[in-house]
Every structure is written in structure tokens, then in C-alpha cells.
Amino acid sequence: MENTVILILVCLSAVISLTAAYMLFKNTKNMQNISKTLTYQYNLLVKIQTVLKNKMSVNETTDKAEIIYQDLLQDLIPVMAAIDVMPRNTSEHPLWRALGGIMDEYKNNPFVLEKLRRAIKLDSNIAHNINHYLNHANQFLQYMANTDTDGILSTTFTDGLLGQSLTFFAQAQTLATSDK
Fold first, then answer.
1. Residue 3: its pLDDT value, please?
2. What is the pLDDT of residue 132?
3. pLDDT score of 74
4. Residue 148 buriedness (CB in 10 A; 0-12 / 13-18 / 19+)
5. How far apart are the first and last CA of the chain?
6. How far apart are CA 172 and CA 79, in angstroms?
7. Quick one: pLDDT at residue 140?
């Protein structure tokens, strides 16, 4: 009887030991799965954070750009009146309509450069507006070059109407100041 009790106790101990080993193995496996899941979740949160930072940066750039657009447009309005140019009749932003009107008129009538040169030379307000426009547009292009990581957006601005207008206005300003 004593041997039976000992055998039962040994079997019971073996079953308990095997159950404990199985539970330990199962818990270790679960902990590894939890660790993998948490690592994946952490990496996903980092990606989401990066996307949100980029989105905030884009929104901030857009807000700053709109303020700069309005400032540039305020400089263009008196210039357009002085050289008798109307904005394009499109659904674009008013700045791009104004710049498009000026550049279209220059393309069709190169005498617009001479009209602008005279306006800069004879009217100090026009000279101030052109100077202010050139400074702010250059600062905006520099800001875009610094914030645009791949350079596509800043190149678009530089090669587009903004860059063309900078060249046109700088040329008129140079002609007006060299003709004193």
C-alpha cells in the first residue's frame, strides 16, 4: 500500500510538473507573441507620428503660404494698375491670376517691361512695391527650398509664375535704377 501511495504521489508530481512545464512553455510563447505585437504597434505608432508631423508641416506651410500670397498680391495690385494689366480670368488663386495676367501681357507685348521700368523710376510707391515683392518672393522661395525635402514643390515655384515674375520684376528694377 505504501508503494501504491508513493507511485500515485510520483505520478501526481510528474503530471503536475508536466502541466507546469506545458504552462510555462505556453506562457513563454504568449509573451513572445505579445512582444512581437507590441514591437509592431510601436513601429506603427512611430509611422503614424511621422505622417502626422509631415501633415502638420504641410498644413503650417500652407497657412504660411496663404499669408505670403496675400502679401505678394497686395504689392502687385498697384503695379498692375500702373502698367495697365488685368488679371487672368480663371478660377486660380488671385495671386496666380495677377501674375499670369502680367506675364501673359509681357509675352504678348514686350513694351510692358518699359512701362514697368518707367513706373518704377517715376513712382516711389511702385518702386517700393516691386522691392517689397522681390524680397518677400525670394524669402518665400528660400523657405520652400528649406522645407521641401524632395525639391519638387520649390522647383515648381521657381520655374513657374513666381520665378518668372521675379526675373521680370528684377529686370525692370535693374533697368530703372541703372538709367538714372
1. 84
2. 94
3. 93
4. middle
5. 126
6. 12
7. 86
What's the pLDDT at 179?
A: 59
Query: What is the model's pTM?
Result: 0.67
**Cell 521680370 maps to which residue?**
168
Q: Mapped to the 3 state alphabet, what secondary structure does 43-90 carry?
A: HHHHHHHHHHHHHHHHHHHHHHHHHHHHHHHHHHHHHHHHHCCCCCCC
DSSP the chain: -HHHHHHHHHHHHHHHHHHHHHHHHHHHHHHHHHHHHHHHHHHHHHHHHHHHHHHHHHHHHHHHHHHHHHHHHHHHHHHHHHHT-PPPSSSS-HHHHHHHHHHHHHHH-THHHHHHHHHHHH-HHHHHHHHHHHHHHHHHHHHHHHH-SSSHHHHHHHHSHHHHHHHHHHHHHHHHHHT-
* Ranges in the chain, pLDDT < 70: 57-58, 61, 179-180
What phi and psi, each to the nearest 5 degrees, are found at residue 93?
-60, 145
